[in-house]
Design goal:
Helix 5 (106-131) packs parallel to helix 11, helix 7 (140-152) runs antiparallel to helix 8 and helix 11 (226-240) runs antiparallel to helix 14. It contains 21 helices and eight strands. The protein folds into three domains: 20-90, Arc Repressor Mutant, subunit A (Orthogonal Bundle); 96-281, GntR ligand-binding domain-like (Four Helix Bundle (Hemerythrin (Met), subunit A), Up-down Bundle); 306-470, Rossmann fold (3-Layer(aba) Sandwich). The protein has a five-stranded parallel sheet, with helices on both faces. Strands 1-3-2 form a three-stranded antiparallel sheet. With 471 residues, the chain is of the alpha/beta class. The protein starts with 19 loop residues before the first helix and ends with a helix.
């Protein structure tokens, strides 16, 4: 028990090198984690705190007093320092937020932060549009477009380079802080650090590009939703054009992305359409937003009954767009993408590069490698020619849930595309041989043919719709 009347540190303790700030952090985390002796209701003795933190008794006293100021400890004369339950902590304190987000409380606190943002930020957007000065809002459009640029950067999902994600977080924080500041409401502005903490957590824990467990479900996208990026841009445009109601609506829709599939709510979609009629963004931007919304809705339908689970293999001849389409499909589903061309043995690449077609014997070890990737990944999108039925049987054997998407196009279009691309080992001279080998999907194969000449995003939307009915 801590004697609150004692002012002098015990002489038997050697002063620790740890700073008071580090000691506060250590004790705060112990309480948040519920370490033995530091759980809710536990009475902390000065000796216990001093020993646990390896600090002097004087510093132990300073640390407990600091935590009492943020509601984590109650200091009472003759009783001592008692750990308080989590709901009584100051959950708006920067340190408490950080500790909780690094603990088993993270899901609960993120939900609370999201609910608070939904209550505060749309109103802040309204006020910013209503009374924000030009000096406060002029930077917002630039930030919104830069945010979209970083969200689209392929390096965003890198597991070894987080530089793009860090820049995205910093710009996003500046944008949201700018909206809160432009609202003219000092209480709103005072909550900027809460939004920043949520973004930092998402960067570290939800957008870290971590591997997924086979059969597991990551509830968060591996990169920002394109729809949300457009909504950032449209919200900012509404603020700059002094359209308060539209700004509020678009902000609410933007925040819906962090709270599940609320964007598929027809009422919200209708409200967004009305807001866009008022704001009148550039037509090409609205068109891209609408196709992305169609993809979001198609994905929601695909996820009903878990139809988004299991391998999806894009097949077809060279030049049909397998890699580009499969990569976008993987991004929108939030699953890994495997490019089969990257798995070819060097001998195969050299043979094709010399203009010689591969034999079934050449392809066998390659297909076995692709199948091994499918077996290991589970929920994955693959781009692989898989021209013959026997090749597809090898891939399906790795996971019976495998479905195929055949991107179809004619010989002339395929040859033209292959001729026009650089840096690939497949020469245009081999396109005819691919059509010679091609065996289209049969009725007993789980798959669909899709016109490969359509725009890539339209193909992804159509694939999601067709697969949701395929079962």
């Amino acid at each position: 028990m801590i004697d609150l009347d004692e002012d002098v540190a015990a002489p038997d303790k050697v002063p620790s090198r740890a700073s008071a700030r580090a000691a506060i952090d250590m004790l705060g985390r112990k309480i948040v984690l519920g370490d033995e002796g530091f759980e809710s209701g536990d009475v902390l003795s000065l000796d216990a705190v001093s020993d646990a933190l390896r600090v002097t008794r004087a510093m132990a006293r300073e640390v407990t007093q600091a935590l009492s100021h943020i509601g984590m400890i109650t200091m009472q004369s003759r009783v001592g320092a008692t750990v308080r339950p989590m709901p009584e902590w100051d959950l708006l304190d920067r340190r408490v937020i950080e500790w909780c987000l690094d603990s088993h409380w993270s899901d609960l606190l993120m939900r609370s932060i999201t609910e608070m943002r939904l209550a505060v930020e749309p109103r802040a957007a309204w006020l910013a549009a209503e009374r924000g000065s030009a000096s406060q809002t002029n930077e917002l459009p630039k930030l919104a477009y830069r945010l979209q640029e970083y969200a689209d950067n392929p390096v965003f999902q890198s597991r070894v380079d987080d530089s793009v994600r860090v820049k995205f977080r910093d710009i996003d924080a500046r944008l949201h802080a700018g909206v809160l500041a432009a609202s003219g409401n000092e209480l709103f502005r005072g909550h900027t650090h809460v939004v920043e903490a949520a973004m930092d957590h998402r960067l570290r824990e939800q957008w870290h590009g971590r591997e997924r467990r086979r059969g597991g479900k990551n509830p968060f996208p591996l990169r920002p939703e394109p729809v949300a990026m457009w909504l950032h841009i449209f919200m900012v445009e509404a603020i700059v054009k002094s359209r308060p109601r539209a700004a509020e609506t678009l902000c609410r829709a933007m925040l819906a992305e962090v709270d599940g599939e609320l964007l598929t709510d027809p009422d919200m979609a209708t409200a967004v359409d009305r807001a866009l009629e008022v704001v009148r963004p550039a037509p090409d931007e609205v068109d891209d937003y609408r196709i992305e919304m169609d993809i979001v809705r198609a994905r929601a339908r695909l996820r009903v009954g878990g139809r988004d689970r299991g391998p999806i293999v894009f097949i077809g001849v060279a030049g049909c767009g397998k890699t580009t389409t499969a990569r976008l499909m993987a991004q929108r589903l939030g699953v890994p993408h495997v490019e089969a061309d990257d798995l070819h043995p060097r001998a195969n690449i050299a043979k094709m590069g010399a203009g010689n077609r591969l034999t079934d014997e050449d392809r066998e070890p390659w297909l076995n490698t692709v199948a091994a990737e499918i077996a290991a990944q589970g929920d994955v999108v693959v781009s692989c020619s898989a021209l013959k039925r026997r090749y597809r049987d090898t891939l399906r054997a790795a996971d019976p849930r495998t479905r195929f998407v055949h991107l179809t196009l004619d010989r002339n279009t395929a040859a033209g595309r292959v001729t026009g691309r650089a840096g690939h080992f497949m020469p245009a001279a081999l396109v005819d041989s691919q059509f010679d080998d091609l065996e289209t999907l049969t009725d007993d194969e789980r798959g669909i043919p899709i016109d490969a000449t359509a725009p890539t995003k339209a193909i992804v939307r159509t694939v999601m719709d067709r697969l949701s009915s395929l079962g």
